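User: Show me a protein chain along with its predicted structure.
Assistant: Here is one chain, sequence first, then structure tokens.
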Amino acid sequence: MSDYLVIVESPAKAKTIERYLGKKYKVKASMGHVIDLPRSQTGVDVDNGFQPKYITIRGKGPVLKELKTAAKKAKKVYLAADPDREGEAIAWHLAHSLDVDTSSDCRVVFNEITKDAIKDSFKTPRAINMDLVDAQQARRILDRLVGYNISPILWKKVKKGLSAGRVQSVAVRLIIDRENEIKAFIPEEYWTIDGQFLKGTEQFNASFHSLINHEKHELKSEQDVESILREMKGNTFKVISVSKKERKRNPAPPFTTSSLQQEAARKLNFRAKKTMMLAQQLYEGIELGKEGIVGLITYMRTDSTRISEVAQKEAAEYITSEYGAQFLRNEPQKEKKQANTQDAHEAVRPSSTFRDPNSLKEFLSRDQLRLYKLIWERFLASQMAQAVMDTMSVDLQNGKAVFRATGSKVKFPGFMKLYVEGSDDQVDETNKMLPDLNEGDEVFKKDIEPKQHFTQPPPRYTEARLVKTLEELGIGRPSTYAPTLDTIQKRGYVALDNKRFVPTELGEIVHESMVEFFPEIVNAEFTAKLEQGLDNIEDGKLHWVQLIDEFYKEFKISLDKAEQEMQKVEIKDEPAGEDCENCGSPMVFKLGRYGKFMACSNFPECRNTKPIVKEIGVTCPTCKEGTIVERKSKKKRIFYGCSRYPECDFISWDKPLPRPCPKCDGLLVEKKLKKGVQVQCVSCDYKEEQQS
């Protein structure tokens, strides 16, 4: 018989911890929550202080029975669920189910699954933190009150199977508001004048900046450009000012949950859900041969960039040994805390800096290794010295026109030797050097090229941009980002088009009803205020019932009004313009979970359905009979195939173009690159200039 029983959430974690603790400890997994609100009803008694009705989750009876049996045999039970609000709530539910005194030293928390961290945590067990439990309980009850009261109204008035939620409703609103901004956007014309110049044999670029003795001069029309060109005489420009500066660049801080999801999207092309799944695996432990199962990163749900002294010292030792003392940061970088940061535990970092990515290649899957490498490099770079850049700005004059050239070079790479943070609008400024220029020098104009441009609408949200915006607005918390993005897609409220969110017709219909009858639920400021209230509960500054009571008073008025006044929305079936090949009845467009599709109007007698085929105006290059249509794979990735499939099996991931290759008459396609697209021929080496 084991002296001590330790209960964690996952079997993988249980194996690792049991090995570290030794024979006196038996470690079992609860497999997440064992107790929760019932799925078949709201489960909240609004007339009795919002008391929740907790039940054993269906299917978890055998797990709970096994834990009870093990608890009776043990001298002491330790509850070691994850170190966050949800983990605290799981521990609290288990304590009540297993007759463990919640005020006893039964709760153990650790930020990383390493031998030292586990053993240290068992030296300082504590009581269950009821403020944390109450904060999680309040969130759960709030979400249940919103979801289980609004959803049935949407079922009756709009369509069965719909749902509403606090955070998801705001996320959908952000996407719809952005789409409306794009539709309302009116492009404005502007021009640039770019030039190529020579100093001796060295070529460099400069752009029109201003008229002499004037501030920067905007070019809004072709007439503006022509007036500037008239000011210029001949091909010689004089250098009228040279500014040389040294600029220091700080490394990015180590990852939070949000920044990890954003950077994994930019650099690894990972969805938020995938990033969190892989991070969970790295945290819970990976089999490393003779070492056994080892937790490779710290807890991945955090909003803090704080780093422990032990981790800082380890990083300093590694950096000094691998790169030299000059690459080590001299003083700690000041941590910038946002107002809504909980700072419950450290940043996401490797559990050991000395476990570098190359040493783990044989043990990790490709994607696990890529994510670990990203986390390892980001953390190590955050502990490295600033990069030093030599920058140079030069003004060239001809007549009254002033052109400006800028350049920079890396004087000392510092952290950039290892890692540079990604950006949605990345500009490489490290290899843009100018010739040695001094005031009074003359340079030769090689070419001048005026270009017409139009201002662009704001970009649609990618997953990374949306996570960043939600975080900035104080909406949701680290554990909610990935599930929220997943939910709004599963409900069919939004879809991804070229990795950017677009609202669906269903999403816009539901959103209109929400804005009219539940404006607070879709209001970002109101939702952020609720999040702050939950934080206040966690800090012991507010009782959870008070927060919910204040919310529910106004919410109940909105519910009653919606029940009585919300008009039933009839989503009419639009004729598709063709007949069903099975029964001859007209086909209609239906609105489903994943957008529109075609279905037989004779449903349910005939259940024929077809995807909506989008032709792109290109004849199939293989069979010469069919046309190329846009299709979607099972993973929702767009590809192009012949309309005569399966008779003709032509497919292409790249979009075919309706014009032939001018070199060989072959098929031209649009090849998507990291930044923009390029037209290429599939049969020869013909390529056109890349478009952004």
